[in-house]
Amino acid sequence: MPMERGKYYEELKRIGLQRLQDSMSRTLGLAALVTYPDGRPLTKTSNLCSFCALLDANPEGSMKCTASRVVSARAAVDAGRAVLDTCHAGLVHLAVPFRVAGETIAVLVSGSVALRPLREEAVAGLAGEAGIDRQELLAAARTVPIWPEERLWMAAEMMQQVTETVGQLLYTRQELQRKVGELSLLFEFSERISGSLQMGAIARQGLQTVLDLTGSTSGSVIILGEAELGARGAEVAATLEPCSELRIIPPEEIIAAVGRQGIAAHFESRLASEKKRPAIAIPLKVGGKVTGVLTLAGKPGGQRFTEEEAVFLTPLGTILGLALENARLCSPLREYYLSTVHALAAALEVKDVYTRGHSIRVAKWARSCARMLGLGAEEEEEVYLAGLLHDVGKIGIRENILLKPTPLTPEDRKEIQSHPEIGARILEPARFPAAVIAAVRHHHEDYGGGGYPAGLQGEEIPLLARIIRVADAYDAMTSARPYRKALTPQEAREELKRCIGRQFDRRVVEAFLRIPEQEMQEALPPPRGGGIP
Q: Which of 144, 193, 358, 437 is the one with CA 20 to 30 A from 304?
């Protein structure tokens, strides 16, 4: 994408444009100045002759010199090549455009020479108009070098070589910056979507990132089914749009064309209001095979997607396609892995009717809380696992203590308080994620200090452990025990708020209390006879 003009001017200054101009001016024996395309000066004038210096030092003369320079610069911009012009004083202006990628970004204006000796009557008139001493200006006029037109064009050719070299340098730097920028974006994109093994989460994250990059408002990710079904077997993995009217799902013929040809396709997305929006469909590829389609629409101002954007978006489609395929292949393993963890959690609770379903409720509420905090898909998955396994260390606690119907003695409590550390040691050899192990180890730490096993406080406690702490406490308060009744949900909420700062992190409690009521209810056990959730 073209570099902004302001960036070009910064680059020109960085490479020493003024020094280059001064050196060239001395070598050619010409005055020189680089201007913006509209004629405004970009550099200071080099090697100004005494005649021009006298005129330029006078307000009236300077104004006319400026007007002549503007005319010459604009003439070079319009022509797209070097032009010879004559200024108001009869001297020659040689104007050569600086062009980068076909665009004129500046003009090199040279002068302080004439094609023929200046007439005394004309010089005297200039002196009178500007209020300059007539004899002084006439003397300066006699020193103005006389150049034949052929010599001027030779100088123009040298100036052209200089401007082309500088322009090529700017273009090369621009391309290098663009490539570095694209590689950085590709790396960042890959990092963003690689944090989950859930296809829906990957598709949504990838789509949101591409919308942000392109400024588009709507898009979708389509996963293609079996080859023989064609577009009819496609499945929508994600859609993002500001309203339902702007939902962008490509028609079957576009999906089929992208799947068949394996290249981006431009089309018009029809809205419910019968208006059309330029859209683009990008293939998602794995091993050269098209496995899906990424579609975007709604660029600012209704602009079309350029071919340059299509080229840039194509590798993003490949990265997204690979991430989705990886998630698809891992899906059976993930489901087996999660079912094993669920079975382990259920086995831990089966001997205690009072805590049955506790781990799954904590896991679900913790995951919802993580979402309310704005955490990513990977952290949601980790806190869910930690919630399922947070009490796994109770395997090492004697059953007569776990099921004791009366309040615990100090010795009993000390043994119970060892379960987070036992749980972490159980999980470590199984190579669970470090964040999961840390959450299990520290889920009984108090935000104000004084918890166990390490006595951490505040931000020292891992965030996932702080989330489990709140979810675990809420479920404990709303569950009946042999020695006490369950609190109502409202009473438990008030207790969470009362203990902010002492036991719980304020940010986590506030996020937990924002969980929609329906989600809170979905984690509760089914009616009697429904079995373990």
A: 193
**DSSP annotation string for 158-173:** HHHHHHHHHHHHHHHH
CA–CA separation, 152 and 115 (whole Å): 9
The residue ranges of DSSP E strands in 198-234, in sequence order, are 218-223
| pLDDT tens track for 493-528 | 999 999 999 999 999 999 999 999 988 988 776 544
- Helix H, strand E, coil C: the string for 436-449 is HHHHHHCCCCCCCC
> Two tokens at 457?
């406080």
Residue 340 C-alpha from the chain's centroid? 37
Structure tokens at 430: 């199984």
Separation CA 154–CA 270 (nearest Å): 58
Which of the four pLDDT bands, split at 50, 70 and 90, describes residue 437? very high
Sign of CA dihedral 72, 73, 78, 84: positive
The token pair that represents 308 in the structure block: 């340059």
Helix segments in 393-487, DSSP class H: 399-402, 410-416, 419-427, 434-441, 463-477
Q: How far is CA 285 from CA 103, 218, 317, in A?
A: 36, 21, 7
Token pair recorded at residue 512: 């937990």
Using CB atoms within 10 A of its CB, is residue 5 exposed (0-12), middle (13-18) or buried (19+)? middle
Q: 185-208 burial by CB neighbour count: b if 16+ within 10 A, else e?
A: eeeebbebbbbbbbbebbbbbbbe
Residue 485: how many CB atoms within 10 A of its CB? 7
Would you say the C-alpha torsion 357, 363, 367, 369 has a positive or negative sign? positive
